[in-house]
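Minutes, methods subgroup
Present: GH (chair), OT, SY

1. OT presented the first of two proteins processed in the latest run. Sequence and structure tokens recorded below as shown on screen.
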Amino acid sequence: MLRTKILQFLPAVLLAVTGLGVAALGSSYQVGSLTAMGPGFMPVALGVCLVLLGIALFAGELRIAPKTELGFPLRPVLWVGGGILAWAMLIDVLGFFPASIVQLLFSSFALPQEGWRSVLILALGMTLAAYILFVTLLGVPVPAFGS
């Protein structure tokens, strides 16, 4: 029973700990202010958001009855990890759009889904939104297609 409880809360705790680490590392840089952001502003802000998300996930797990059988989620870890690895390997060769779509398609195999059409539409929409956010608005120098 104790093992089940620990495994139930482990993702929330790991998310919050990761957020604390990111915020701590980001705070070693100049943070600046909202109108004059320094290099540490985004890592600190994202780290705080991860901590808040971890707390929300933890609180949500408190409200759910304990699951009877929890094992290590090997399938999601492998597919999401493989997607991140594929993105890292393809971003310089194929560009932002193809690498991101491949990464999201890999990650979609982590859990059973309803249909490939919805996954493809979601992958295209998220890729476009990420491109607008990171490349267009934040100015990350990544080519859209190929190098």
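2. SY then presented the second protein from the same run.
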Amino acid sequence: MAATAMIHVRVDDEIKTQATETLAMMGLSVSDAVRVFLKRVVVEQAMPFEIRVPNIETRAAMAEADEIVRARRARFATSQEMFDALEKEAGKR
């Protein structure tokens, strides 16, 4: 058996919990998933998924989402207001 090495990674507790639960439903542990990821990096000689810089519209949406979280406020007072705004925006297209 080949020698093994430890990898220590810091992640948010909630992300770890959610990932652990999701991977378990696939029959994988977090360690299994990391091994699969690293093997794909080696085989493909690249990240096994596309990484791109977000466009200006996406960056604006991300900034807005961050502000909503920081301010603990919603963009709409009710879900109906949100659906009305979505329908109005869809009508413009």
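Chair's summary of item 2: Residues 56-71 form the longest helix (16 residues).
Next meeting: continue with the remaining queue.
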